[in-house]
Amino acid sequence: MERSDGGGERISSDSSTAAGEDRLSALPDDILVLVLLRLHNAAAAAQTSVLSRRWRRLWALLPELRFPSSSDPRHIASALLAHQAPLAFLDVATEDAAAESVAAWLPAAARRLSGSLVFTNRTPAANAADEGEAPCERKRGAAFIDLPCFGNATAVSLDVGYLGVAVVPLDGVFARLTKLRLAHVHFRRPCALGDAVSSRRCPSLEKLTVRYAMGVTDLAVRFSSLRRMKLENMDGLEKLTVATPALEHLTVLACFYRGRRRRPVADIEARQLKVLRWGDLFDRSSVKLGKMKHLQSVCPDVFLVYGFPPNDPCLALLRCFKIIQQLCLTLVYLPDINDRPYLLEDMKMLPGVTSLHLGLTSNGHAFGTCLFHILKLCSGTRKLALEISGKISEEQTTCPAGCICDEHQSWKTEELLLNHLQEVKITEFRGSEHEVTFVEQLFKWATVLTKMTVTFNSLVAESMSKKQYRILRSFSRPEICMEFYTSNEDMVEEMYAPEH
């Protein structure tokens, strides 16, 4: 059967003829490259070479190469050598790869890359460290990876699964690098990490992250361009020196706990610093914080409400500041607090704050006494954000009977005037008796409150959230704008909110 195309020429509609016609190969190269990019797999893209001569070299024009699960790293090196286009993105994932296999392709990547590299070597040791276990020592005699110089890369993320890494050559320059992330790394001693991450070698670096690192005892970071730095779980760190005039965000988490020194030693010079998060040991006699006139937010280490050891690092850091725009405190109740001392009385003063952000892991315990104490010390705050967390099942909304968590009842009757508090935001609200009682009291204390936003935990059923909505509204006053939301893993949905 035939049909006309409107111009007099007859076109066959025979199915076999139509099936044999290769219209896809007639498309321009840039369109076909977009098609291959949708595969998200460099090996699969290369396999299209068997289709015809037209497709033989198309994969080599891809601006991005992804190897989601590579069992033979030699194929990565071969692919990089055969690749022809500028390489803007390279993503490699391996399973417990040896240092020799990574060294087979990493130098080629350094020569070819003009954009971002993401390498993830998934290993049991890395997984254990992420779950809080101590990192394992590198095997004696195991090979190291010589980290090459990525002269044209803009971003490098290396999660090597505790493979040994040596930073060479020392005269190389990461000229365009703006972001560097190193995770699960065992640096060769004597460690040259401080020389590697410096203005001399990385003149454009703006963001540095080092997580779960071993082999670094003395780290000196000196930059003129660095704006964000995060150091987390640097096992064995004893001394930290930071001289970064442009630094705005600094995070130090669990880096000094396993050091051989009894107290941390640090010298921080960051005049432009805006956010300081220090979740680590802290001693005012050995940790020197330079002038920070632009500091806006401080986040100290977690504070245990009941338990051991004392919260000295958190309290010592808080004593460094008289006034701060935003204070972020994380309060933790252990699941079993019976026979443990009440530690909140050690907190006798807090900086004057405009915005108070409280992270609360309650584990089902009554927390009214704790929050009352904090608010009494920060009675001048204008904004309060309360994020309730903790692994609580749908059924468990209170702690076991006879628990000591609610033995201090005076907070329910003692007067507290929060005559500056205008806005309150509560997230992960479950509607437990403890939570409802606290919110009821909060309405009484906050005499100038104008807005309250409540987001329910995803485990709260719709019927229960509606019930809690009505209860909380009954505590409110006409001048207070109240908004309610429900949440799940992907999004937050509006439940009840006034029309704007």
TrEMBL record:
Residues 416-453 form the FBD domain. It comes from the Eukaryota. Pfam families: FBD (PF08387), LRR_At5g56370 (PF24758). InterPro entries: F-box-like_dom_sf, FBD, FBL15-like, LRR_dom_sf, LRR_FXL15/At3g58940/PEG3-like. Gene3D superfamilies: Ribonuclease Inhibitor. Residues 1-20 are annotated as: Disordered. Residues 1-12 have a biased composition (Basic and acidic residues). Residues 158-276 form the F-box/LRR-repeat protein 15/At3g58940/PEG3-like LRR domain. This is F-box domain-containing protein.
